[in-house]
Sequence to fold (267 residues):
Amino acid sequence: MKVFVIDIDKCSGCHNCQIACKDEHCGNDWMPYALPQPNSGQFWMRVKQKDHGQVPKVRVEYTPWMCMHCDSPACKAAAPDAVQKRDDGLVIIDPAKSKGKREIVDACPYGAIFYNEELDVPQKCTGCAHLVDEGELPHCVDLCATGALRFGEEEDFADEIAAAETFEVNGTGPRVYYLNLPHLFIGGEVWDPKVNEIIEGAKVTLTMPDGTQRIQMTDDFGDFWFRRIDAGNYSLKIEADGFKTIERNSIKLEESLNLGDFPMKAV
Ligand code: SF4
Ligand code: SF4
Fold:
C-alpha cells in the first residue's frame, strides 16, 4: 500500500508541488482517473502557509495539503459507487460515475475536493494514478527538489511513519504522514541595559505544563527559542552570572509567543 510522507522541516515553501499538479492536470485528460483540472482557483495540491509569533520573532511554516487517500474515505461513504479505493491505497473519484454528485465535495473533512462547474464533476488529487500505473512517481513528488515530499510503499517508510503525525478526522485513517509538523514556540531576548548589550549564555529554564523543564542558553544574539511546544500554561526563569534572576509565571500559550526583551539588572 502506498503512502505519502511529507517532512515539513525540508519544505522550503517553493510551491513547485502545487505548480507541478497544475502542470500535470490542467488541460490534460487522464481518464479513467481524472478529467482536466481548471486552470485557476482549484488546487489538488496546495501549500498552506502559516505565520507564527510576533515581529521580530516570526517563523513562516509551510504545509503541503492534498487528498489524504484515507483508509476509510468519507468521500466513498457518501458515494460508494462513484469513489474507488484502489488496492495500492489511492482513492479515486470516478469522473463518469460522480457526474453531478456535489455531495462528495462536502463529505471530505479535509477540504480536499473541488467542484469543477464546467465539467460538472467533483475532483481531487488522484496521486497521479496514471503515472503510478507506469511505475513513476506522482508529479509533485518528482518535482520536489528538497526531498520534503516522498511517496512509496508503506513498509519502506516504516521508520518515518512511526515518527510521523497525521491530521486524523473522524476515523478516516489518512495515509499522508507528516514529519516535523509545526507546533508553537516561545521566544525572547535577554540584554543588559546598563551597557546596552545583549547577554549571551544566559540560562533560560522553561517549565512545561506537565512540570518537566527544558533548559537553553541564550545564543549570540541574546535570543532564546523553545520550539515544538503546545498550548498550555508555562513559566520561565532567566539566570545569568552577576544579574538578578528574572521569573515569569502563568504564561498562557495559545499561539506562538515572542515574550520580547528581558533587561537584566546587576546584583
Ligand atoms: S515542492 Fe517540496 S519543498 Fe517545495 S513547497 Fe512542495 S513540498 Fe515544499
Ligand atoms: S482526504 Fe477526503 S477526498 Fe481524500 S480520501 Fe480522505 S475523505 Fe476522500
Remarks:
- The pocket of iron/sulfur cluster (ligand 2) is lined by residues 67-70, 73-75, 91, 108, 110, 112-113, 124, 172 (CB under 6 Å).
- The chain has a mean pLDDT of 96.
- The chain has six helices and 17 strands.
